[in-house]
Amino acid sequence: xxxxxxxxxxxxxxxxxxxxxxxxxxxxxxxxxxxxxxxxxxxxxxxxxxxxxxxxxxxxxxxxxxxxxxxxxxxxxxxxxxxxxxxxxxxxxxxxxxxxxxxxxxxxxxxxxxxxxxxxxxxxxxxxxxxxxxxxxxxxxxxxxxxxxxxxxxxxxxxxxxxxxxxxxxxxxxxxxxxxxxxxxxxxxxxxxxxxxxxxxxxxxxxxxxxxxxxxxxxxxxxxxxxxxxxxxxxxxxxxxxxxxxxxxxxxxxxxxxxxxxxxxxxxxxxxxxxxxxxxxxxxxxxxxxxxxxxxxxxxxxxxxxxxxxxxxxxxxxxxxxxxxxxxxxxxxxxxxxxxxxxxxxxxxxxxxxxxxxxxxxxxxxxxxxxxxxxxxxxxxxxxxxxxxxxxxxxxxxxxxxxxxxxxxxxxxxxxxxxxxxxxxxxxxxxxxxxxxxxxxxxxxxxxxxxxxxxxxxxxxxxxxxxxxxxxxxxxxxxxxxxxxxxxxxxxxxxxxxxxxxxxxxxxxxxxxxxxxxxxxxxxxxxxxxxxxxxxxxxxxxxxxxxxxxxxxxxxxxxxxxxxxxxxxxxxxxxxxxxxxxxxxxxxxxxxxxxxxxxxxxxxxxxxxxxxxxxxxxxxxxxxxxxxxxxxxxxxxxxxxxxxxxxxxxxxxxxxxxxxxxxxxxxxxxxxxxxxxxxxxxxxxxxxxxxxxxxxxxxxxxxxxxxxxxxxxxxxxxxxxxxxxxxxxxxxxxxxxxxxxxxxxxxxxxxxxxxxxxxxxxxxxxxx
Length: 768
What we know:
Blueprint: E1 4-5, E2 8-9, H1 10-17, E3 20-26, E4 35-41, E5 44-50, H2 68-73, E6 82-85, E7 88-91, H3 94-112, E8 117-121, H4 129-142, E9 147-149, H5 156-166, E10 174-175, E11 182-186, H6 190-193, H7 203-212, E12 216-220, H8 226-229, E13 233-235, H9 242-255, E14 268-269, H10 271-278, H11 283-290, H12 294-306, E15 310-314, H13 316-319, H14 324-337, E16 347-348, E17 364-365, H15 393-398, E18 407-411, H16 415-418, H17 422-429, E19 434-438, E20 451-453, E21 476-477, H18 493-504, H19 514-530, H20 541-547, H21 554-563, H22 587-592, E22 597-598, E23 611-612, E24 617-618, H23 622-626, H24 628-635, E25 643-645, H25 661-664, E26 672-674, H26 676-682, E27 689-693, E28 698-705, E29 713-715, H27 730-734, E30 761-762, E31 764-767
Parallel strand pairs: 8-9, 8-18, 11-12, 11-15, 12-13, 14-24, 17-23, 18-19, 19-20, 25-29, 26-28
Antiparallel strand pairs: 1-2, 3-4, 4-5, 6-7, 6-20, 10-16, 21-22, 25-30, 26-29, 27-28, 27-31
Helix pairs in contact: 3-18, 4-18, 5-14, 9-11, 9-12, 9-14, 11-12, 18-19
């Protein structure tokens, strides 16, 4: 029975009396940057769907985007600080937490030096404007050499190769999928991952549109991934041999007289020595190691040369391998020698509205890359881009001696799950004298912390994709203000990091976070005024600061970057539209246009995009050419009987999305894929449990027999393994899965970038 009142049900009255509003924001959960339309009733999220008016995504949304409500409401998400005393967690105020950090961390620094503190930066941090901007002053304040991040289990080889070629780690040529005739994908699965280092919503739709206009898709992958299932050609390569395949493509093009750099030719240095160095890598030489017929390699090379517009795109399968930097370099070499670098339909450079180093300073000429400025203490592994390889983190903690890491600061990361030899790192973290984590969960890593400082929910933070817009397949800009206010016990993420920076600088737990904020904006304004290529060159810094009032924090920094960027208003000096119907950019303009602004398709940017010492694309970078000798040995090396590779699922983004029921429900996905012929010779059956062993450890996983992997290859998804004691993630523990990094070996890495080998790990497989 329903109670009636005045001709209307109570339920209907409640709806009628409710206050409903709509908010728009860009999804912060992966690199696709899809627009969301969020309906709130009485200030509670009641629906999330794709924003059909978003200038970039046009309503597309993947399963992850609709879960921001569940993430916000997750009862396991921390809302206030935690302090551990005698092994027991206690809720604490922010003042108590900061005081505890001052009390325990500073004596370690005073007694053992700043290198006694290690820093780990996790993947989610790049999706947060506050973390991305204010993590830097914290690292600088710590003054430690022991800085690590998820980069060296992910994209660092591509960053390093691009720094050598083009002068900047984020000067990455992205595949112009919307205009190409031939897309060659290596080690990527955009049907599941929505693209990576190539930002665009609806990669599947873009690929299908390419094929509808007559284009072709070639996928190079040891697995028949979801993307490979859609391909016109699938080449089931042996894991880790991508660099050999790419070298053979160049060798074939040279042999056929088809080398042609096209419009980029005047800006390319070292073409002849590179082609000569790659000549020995013939299809016949590499075919046995690659596992692809020489005829198929030659056919692909000629197809790339014949296509009116073509592009090669390589991703994590190519970077997390022993020749990751060489493979990343060779992707751009192939795009260059086929005339597809910096051309529509080829590999193009985005022109980001804010934050890109290739839009500041003198066009074309720069310092280039500076690597190996220091080395790790135990194994002398070189630094790249300010970070040491994470493959050496455990030994830097558990090996005694001067410079030993005794304390850790982790930010939005879970290295115990996401980095090699996870068992050793887990044990090492347990020996630390002190650890502080900025994180929203008590996970496999943060359970070792002494203090956890929770960042606020994504719905309470302003959002702008500062990094991913530099990798976008179309030039767009979109800012999202907070959808909801901070909770009563929450603190802005930038304030958390700024307070930590002040504490480690000795300014005390009560220091005002605005000190760091003011120093940052002052430095950025001074840099813009001093840059003779800036639209505010020579202006009064104080006047510019006054125009940025009353904003504080990330939004003030973003407003400055937008206004002094390539589409900015120059604080009033630029008047004309920067794109059809788009006035010069300010943050106020983006606030007024919640669906974003479309700044147009990618356009050629050579040579001004470069920041190399020569002012040219340095195709012949010496460290890359020197590593070809090591690659030649791979062509003749014996093939391991079994190797392990990872895989990606559309509903999973590393380890931090596994506590949401809607994303983990259904058929278990943490299974070991085994080819039928391998299952027979190893004595495995579907549904049974297999044991996988390597030098560094072993694991057990349920078997899924499938011909989706090539013989000799087994596959296990990355980011699982949530069964550890002390983890406070109820859903994730219920579907714990197994941590593939228990068998990832910290002794296997790409020597140029220090990046771990996570695809192609030699293993032994048998019944549990």
